[in-house]
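for ur thesis appendix - TRAF-type zinc finger domain-containing protein 1. copy paste whatever u need, i formatted it the way the template wanted (i think)
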Amino acid sequence: KKDIPVANFIVHEIHCSRNIEVCRHCSELIPKSEMKNHMESEHVQVTCKCRMKIEKCLLKDHEVSACPLRPAVCQYCDIQLTSNKLQDHEVYCGARTERCGGCSRNVMVKDLKEHPRVCG
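the 3d part is after this line
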């Protein structure tokens, strides 16, 4: 998968076909002597803490962006909880009220950012 001078192409092609394999999972070019290690280190199935089975090479991305047990922070109170509990928590947390120092009215936490525009 690289440009090779025409004069070297046949020798290069023979070398590659003897020594290099294309991984059937990720299409990476892997030396044949390292294919077993590649399969075991990258494509073995592992279980995430959320109990989902996933290839080892995809686990980090899953843990950061898709895992329902990944850490998430509430936009209202900055408490850290799991992503699968964030929405319910924010509905509850945003509905709490705090007294406005300017107008002395109770304002829902979710409206505090916009309140200064309408505060009397």
